[in-house]
């Protein structure tokens, strides 16, 4: 058995966490030989509910769980953590866009960025799930000047997974047959789920589907999937969001099987300027991720990649005062 690692999960009493924490505790994120110490953060009003969650974790008698910390102080929750899953924040309701949450949630991520800077392990890997995830990750990163910006990522893996299934179902294949699908840009309705580089069972995806289906059905369905779930469930996605968070952290820590989509600091690759957290195709190996270079970008893709970059720049401008 390895030494335990410390994992902070914020919003520990919320609906995503109710799935996420138990899967992490079961070993789904870091493997069956990796003991964990869970450090759960909530706001004071939700501490009683969080204590209920702690009681349930204890009642599972998980072999991998070595300790549980439940707190309303980010300085305690982030002490020495190796992994930080920043989920805690308000979800949107029907009729809202995720960026409508910017004002309500942005302050959370400046406070938490500072606490990560002061208390987390110097190698911490941070995933922001709380919306608008990309810009919240930027806020956290800018408030943590002693950590590398590359340690802050945001979640577009849910969009990636959604797109994989849409394409697999359309082509009558399984998600295991789909490779090199890319989600570019923001976790928002401007994201660009791109199948132009994608192969299904070894064949180019664009030869298997009609162009009209790709442009008028697939892209909007993936872009609007979060809203469709809110409409159907009366609450935003939770178990699928938790599954995507597990996939994101699992691959970052232990390596990915092929190309996956991660929102990471833009570094100029594919003409996307630095200063925003943008979803790219990456490969993960040995605890790091690397942008997959060399894809040819046609005019259709360029326009879509630009539109989602523009939105991220607008979001950044709206929170300039929180960027330190
Ligand atoms: P929820 O309301 O069920 O839970 C959120 C929890 O966060 C609550 O228990 C709340 O008390 C807590 N919280 C609020 N402020 C906090 C703070 N400062 N510190 C610690 N905890 C705090 O919401 P949910 O359904 O679990 O969703 C959480 C967030 O994740 C929302 O912003 C939602 O939009 C987002 N989300 C993102 C994705 C994605 O793909 N990136 C997917 C689904 C949901
Ligand atoms: C999702 O994509 O399901 C989440 O970001 C929740 C939402 O607001 O759509």
TrEMBL record:
Its EC number is 1.1.1.37. Residues 156-320 form the Lactate/malate dehydrogenase C-terminal domain. It catalyses: (S)-malate + NAD(+) = oxaloacetate + NADH + H(+). Residues 5-142 form the Lactate/malate dehydrogenase N-terminal domain. It comes from the Bacteria. Pfam families: Ldh_1_C (PF02866), Ldh_1_N (PF00056). NAD(+) binds at residues 11-17, 105, 112, 129-131. Keywords: NAD, Oxidoreductase, Tricarboxylic acid cycle. One of its GO terms (molecular function) is L-malate dehydrogenase (NAD+) activity. It is an enzyme of class 1 (oxidoreductase). The keyword NAD applies. The active site is at residue 187. The keyword Oxidoreductase applies. PROSITE patterns: MDH (PS00068). Catalyzes the reversible oxidation of malate to oxaloacetate. PANTHER family: MALATE DEHYDROGENASE. Belongs to the LDH/MDH superfamily. MDH type 2 family. This is Malate dehydrogenase. It comes from Halomonas piscis. The lineage of its organism: Bacteria, Pseudomonadati, Pseudomonadota, Gammaproteobacteria, Oceanospirillales. The gene is mdh.
